[in-house]
Amino acid sequence: MSEVAINQDASRRELDRLAELAGDVIRRARAAGASQAEVSASIETGLSVNVRLGEVETVEHTRDRGFGLTVYFGQRKGSASTADLNADSIQATLDQACAIARFTEEDPAAGLADASRMATQFPELDLWHPWMIDTADAIALGQDIEAAGRAHAGITNSEGASVQMGESLSVYANSHGFVGSERGTRHSLSLSLIAGDEAGMQRDYWYDSVRSASDFMSAQALGNKAAERTLSRVGARRLSTRQCPVLFAPEIARGLIGHLIGAVSGGSLYRQASFLLDHAGKQVMPAWLNIVERPFLLRGQGSGAFDAEGVATRDSALIENGVLARYVLGSYSARKLGLESTGNAGGIHNLIVEPGHGDGGAADDFRGMLKRLGTGLLVTEVMGQGVNIITGDYSRGAAGFWVENGEIAYPVEEITIAANLRDMLAGITAVGSDVDKRSHLLTGSILLKPMTVAGE
């Protein structure tokens, strides 16, 4: 059994203790003159093991606590936090938050979310799956993963395998009387390998991330996947500068959807720092494309019954027939914009990009997406920070594969792909059924109309 795992009964007792502490601090904040107050408290435990070349590099056990308090004196706000849950530290945190609020300028948008929006239903979402693995077994698993990868001919070195177990307990409470408790687990495995030839060295990796360890791919399969990806990059070439269609692999396509979310999120909008400012209700993607938020997926990476302010989450379209149906807002940004919270304080809860294309019929798997690409660029890695959410300008270093007649021809590297996000989103021609489930952004590969590919 893991030295740091929290069992079922202990987790419930810890949540009850955090909820009791949160309620007590809110009562004390009100007694100190606060008109409103909210508390976030958490306990996180974990085990992380790294092995390289069969030897243990690091073993880390963690048990972190967090306690954050925000008080409102009218529309003056003060926040303070501590990692220590003893009585003196909590009192000092309360005193500090109140002192800050008394001397802070009033903000008309400050305050708790509306009381009528608080969650009242808390369905079981199957997020709690403690992994009872001890250090010795975690080390052995890491060694097995690495050995599986290193067994492939052509693999010359390893950057190591990691095994991580994580559990989190959290409580959010506020002076509306809302108390919400959540517990969840996240576990991961990964391996990074190196292959080389006379032209140079190539590195690649693979990982798996799950709520329940029973859902992991096998050590052999993960090692094989990491090795196959690494070996496939040997002999990479540069391309001449050209215009061509581009297929983003699912893990890269996820980033494109992340840029969309950033552009329609409240902070970017009320600061007028988005290329999609004032685009709600307007066509921003192809008419066949839909993106929906599903907060209640069982074992979902982003599942939850309430957001960071206690607002109830709900199934909701973000893109409907290519039209931007709404923004992504918490209460503060909503008030700044004269709108209402969309239950997204703290982020998105499982965003699903529905597979499909404009031709009708079934969505394509990855091989089908290559056929649909025909001749063009498959991107499996992007580098750099060349994305401007204000203007939509997109220019990033990339690597991947040149595809001819629907078949991978050879690996490519040291290229740059460039376009404008507005054109990229409008120019999506297909979304694959090869969905990457390791994130709260759930999408298959995405095929785009021609972009500029800069190389030699």
From TrEMBL:
Keywords: Hydrolase, Metalloprotease, Protease. Residues 37-101 form the Metalloprotease TldD/E N-terminal domain. Gene3D superfamilies: PmbA/TldD superfamily. It comes from the Bacteria. InterPro entries: Metalloprtase-TldD/E_C, Metalloprtase-TldD/E_cen_dom, Metalloprtase-TldD/E_N, PmbA, TldD/PmbA_N, TldD/PmbA_sf. Residues 129-233 form the Metalloprotease TldD/E central domain. Residues 241-455 form the Metalloprotease TldD/E C-terminal domain. Pfam families: PmbA_TldD_1st (PF01523), PmbA_TldD_2nd (PF19290), PmbA_TldD_3rd (PF19289). GO terms for molecular function: metallopeptidase activity. The keyword Electron transport does not apply. The keyword Hydrolase applies. Belongs to the peptidase U62 family. This is Metalloprotease PmbA. The lineage of its organism: Bacteria, Pseudomonadati, Pseudomonadota, Gammaproteobacteria, Lysobacterales.
